[in-house]
Automatic annotation (TrEMBL):
GO function term, MF aspect, one: magnesium ion binding
UniProt-listed InterPro entries: DTB_synth_BioD, P-loop_NTPase, PyrdxlP-dep_Trfase_small
Segments forming a coiled coil: none
Lineage: Eukaryota, Sar, Stramenopiles, Oomycota, Saprolegniomycetes
Protein's recorded name: Dethiobiotin synthase
Pfam families: AAA_26
Keywords: Aminotransferase, Transferase
Gene Ontology terms: biological process: biotin biosynthetic process
GO CC field: mitochondrion
Species of origin: Aphanomyces astaci (Crayfish plague agent)
Amino acid sequence: MMLSALRRRSFSSRAAASRPGLLHVGCNIRRDDPPSKQYVPNAVSVSLRSPIVQVFGSNTDVGKTIVSAGLCRAAVQSSATSSVGYIKPLQTGGDSMMDARFLHSHMDASRLTCETLFSWDTPVSPHLAAQLEQKSLTDDILVHRLSDAIHKLQPTASTLMVVETAGGVCSPSASGKFQCDVYRPLRPPAVLVGDGKLGGISATMSALDSLLLRGYDVPWIVLIEQDDLGNAAAIADRAAELNISVFALPKLPPQPTPLHDWYMAQDEIFRSLLSAISTYHQRRVDRLHAISSQAQDVRLILWWPFTQHKQNRGVLVIDSAYGDSFATFDAASTSLEPMVDACASWWTQGLGHGNPKAALAVATTAAR
């Protein structure tokens, strides 16, 4: 698709020359346009001012909310954290604030803000609830709403943001599309909650592969053990090969026993997880800033195939790409900003970036 064709879409493009001295490969989404013109699927801004993680489950009922609460509890107790934000994008079962109330009941809630974005009454998967209640929700609305909620709840650099998904990694969103595909434009580092039950080793590793195949970073697996099966130990070697830390939690007390004592006994583990998240986030941001600061040396580092490239004094730092958009690093705001990939003549537009079907085909071919 040519750049002239891009201008006929429902969003406005900004000429690359607006940032002089940089090698541009696309056009930025204009922030001063009306919302209707900014509404571009798979193109959202992601602030990196403070740590943000997305909690995925290897299955339903593996303890995502319990792990999310433990992590938020550790952050609330930390003097280094000014506030904590918890977002549940999709909730079914009638009580839209059920998980939020669980979090509030297990910590000092004065520094905790919880928000549920979309909810349905029927206690089934979101795609079924949306059909039964005739309350549809498109993926681009969900992703943009989540991006807005993160920006709203992220007021300071020390804030921790926790986004908890619904069901398993490949559980459908309201549209029927897998959640791991829906949330991919944001690409926050993932905390994968493993399955401690019988058969949970396979479920956990399959969920991990599904996330890695889609380009997610998965630095941590948290697993609540069941019946002394030792699932965490069983996946430890493979996780270590992938540089993934595994955090094992003991079995929960039988319901309806309150979890206050259980949480107190596991506070140190959750503090370790919080520390790992903070360290990972800082290293990620430092690396992006370091690459960005190397602009003056870029002509010595990279090979420039065309004459006009020799005039460039720097490059855009691209953290990732998905669909038609790049996620470019803005050092001034410490954020990832969307930029439409307008390099159609470079044959990238047919499938888009990060296409899971293409990634699976390549992986299958490589495995043969």
